[in-house]
């Protein structure tokens, strides 16, 4: 039998995050040599990571950091809500968020390729995969800037970490910005701040669909232009933030509420875990 103690088991578990049986197996296979046991666990862990690559990581959390006029939003995924609730996964997610903030990451690839404590973040996630036993990945990263950035996190279940996160940047300080961030959280169809941001080809597609639908419905030829414009405006009302009815007062648009507050919207980011 290999020569090791309970203290060795404890130390190796703390060092690697591996389970009790895996640690004992590693020490048995390495005759109690802790360094060799670490190598054994890394090899086995990487093998496990490869097996998990095809598995679906649709649970997890969103996390936010705001410092003055800069906001960072990350989505970190795992396979089950059980793991999403756990301290180990949440500690990994916090570490990922802190790194995204530190390097000013605005996309997942930049974050994953960055170095943290001598390793690339993607390597740190691989190690987390091995230690936690599930596929762990960073799906999305967003960075929003403005004179002020409001944020909002929403839990879809009280026993889960936040599943919806929003950042909303404006050109001045106002408490209304947080209300608008909450509005964005409630309206997943929001895709643009203003209609000028909507790509021309998208507008033309909507116009063509509106025209063809009206013709299919047998609408009079002379009425088609007005019907098409009405339906395209309906598209803007659904997709464009400042044209939407404000969630807290549907008699006003979001744009009108912001104008009354004396600020202009600049940008937003919205993530929902798995969506």
From TrEMBL:
InterPro entries reported in the protein's UniProt record: EF-Ts_dimer_sf, Transl_elong_EFTs/EF1B, Transl_elong_EFTs/EF1B_dimer, Transl_elong_Ts_CS, UBA-like_sf
Domain Translation elongation factor EFTs/EF1B dimerisation intervals: 71-274
Alphabetical keyword list: Cytoplasm, Elongation factor, Protein biosynthesis
Subcellular location: Cytoplasm
GO terms of molecular function: translation elongation factor activity
Involved in Mg(2+) ion dislocation from EF-Tu: annotated span: 80-83
CDD domains in the cross-refs: UBA_EF-Ts
Coiled coil stretches, renumbered: none
Superkingdom per UniProt: Bacteria
PROSITE patterns reported in the protein's UniProt record: EF_TS_1 (PS01126), EF_TS_2 (PS01127)
Similarity comment text for this entry: Belongs to the EF-Ts family.
The protein's role, per its UniProt record: Associates with the EF-Tu.GDP complex and induces the exchange of GDP to GTP. It remains bound to the aminoacyl-tRNA.EF-Tu.GTP complex up to the GTP hydrolysis stage on the ribosome.
This protein's name: Elongation factor Ts
Organism this protein belongs to: Angustibacter luteus
Species classification: Bacteria, Bacillati, Actinomycetota, Actinomycetes, Kineosporiales
Gene that this sequence comes from: tsf
């Amino acid at each position: 039998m290999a020569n090791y103690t309970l203290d060795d088991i404890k130390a190796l578990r703390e060092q690697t995050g591996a389970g009790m049986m895996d640690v004992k197996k590693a020490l048995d296979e390495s005759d109690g040599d802790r360094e060799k046991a670490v190598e054994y666990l890394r090899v086995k862990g990487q093998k496990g990571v490869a097996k998990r690559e095809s598995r679906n990581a649709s649970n997890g959390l969103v996390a936010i950091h705001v410092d003055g006029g800069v906001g960072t939003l990350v989505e970190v995924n795992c396979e089950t809500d059980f793991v999403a609730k756990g301290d180990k996964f949440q500690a990994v997610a916090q570490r990922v968020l802190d790194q995204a903030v530190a390097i000013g990451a605005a996309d997942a690839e930049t974050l994953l390729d960055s170095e943290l404590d001598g390793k690339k973040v993607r390597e740190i996630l691989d190690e987390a995969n091995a230690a936690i036993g599930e596929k762990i990945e960073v799906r999305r990263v967003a960075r929003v800037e403005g004179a002020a950035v409001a944020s909002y996190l929403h839990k879809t279940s009280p026993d889960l970490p936040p599943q919806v996160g929003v950042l909303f940047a404006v050109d001045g300080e106002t408490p209304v910005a947080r209300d608008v961030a909450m509005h964005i959280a409630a309206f997943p169809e929001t895709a643009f701040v203003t209609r000028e941001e909507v790509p021309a080809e998208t507008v033309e597609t909507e116009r063509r669909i509106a025209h063809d639908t009206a013709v299919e419905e047998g609408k009079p030829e002379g009425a088609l232009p007005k019907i098409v414009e009405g339906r395209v405006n309906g598209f803007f009302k659904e997709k464009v933030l400042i044209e939407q009815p404000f969630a807290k007062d549907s008699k006003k648009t979001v744009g009108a509420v912001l104008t009354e507050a004396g600020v202009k919207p600049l940008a937003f980011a919205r993530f929902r875990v798995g969506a």
